[in-house]
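Researcher: Please translate sequence to structure tokens.
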Amino acid sequence: MRVAVLAFLLPVATLAQPAFDVASIRPTRLVSGTEGGNWPNAAVTSAGITMHNYTLRNCIEWAWNVRPFQVEGPAWLDDERFEIGARTAGPTATEQLRLMLRGLLQERFRLALHRDSKDVAVYALVPSKSGVKLREAADGESGWSKTGPGLRLSFRRSTVAQLAEYLSMLVFVDRPVVDASGLTGAYDFILDLREVADRSGDAPAPSVGTLLQEQLGLRLETRKAPMEILVVDRAERMPL
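Model: Translation complete:
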């Protein structure tokens, strides 16, 4: 059985692409003894973006709004790291900032990409044999939020497809998650992932799949599925 993975990749090139008012890209100079400050991070506001210790792959991921497994290219995409500061002439929506970063990368790195598709390993989110433990949603707005300390999440009027999309973004889930549950309703539920995200000590942490089955009556099943990817055809190792 093949599961369709929907990865909405915006066009690689656009006409009249918007541009930043001011932008700079320079190699990162890591400082010894400040390990925490060397972690990659980014700040995005309506006035622009700031990226610290970002690889070109990281930049492509943000600009095209894709996950690491959707970008293929030379190995050095993960080696060289950069500081990027870019400002707009006025308040700008996030999607416009993504377009602006695409143009900046194409100009400074001579970046050229194309889209392709290939079969990749995924987790299919399916009902467990013991039955689904989801409650039909009450009236109200949809969304999710943290409830209490750690990664304990409250989902409101959420679909299983939205849950799969959220799980795909977690750093400790090693492949994309797709909805293969057949459930089309909206649900209210709590998902507590603290045992995975905040583990300490020597005791092994339970897997995300175990917590999903215990709490929601859903399980992760390994499958292959076609996915759209971005392939880097050309890129300068250092920005112009």
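Researcher: Any highlights?
Model: The CA atoms of residues 210 and 219 lie 7 Å apart.
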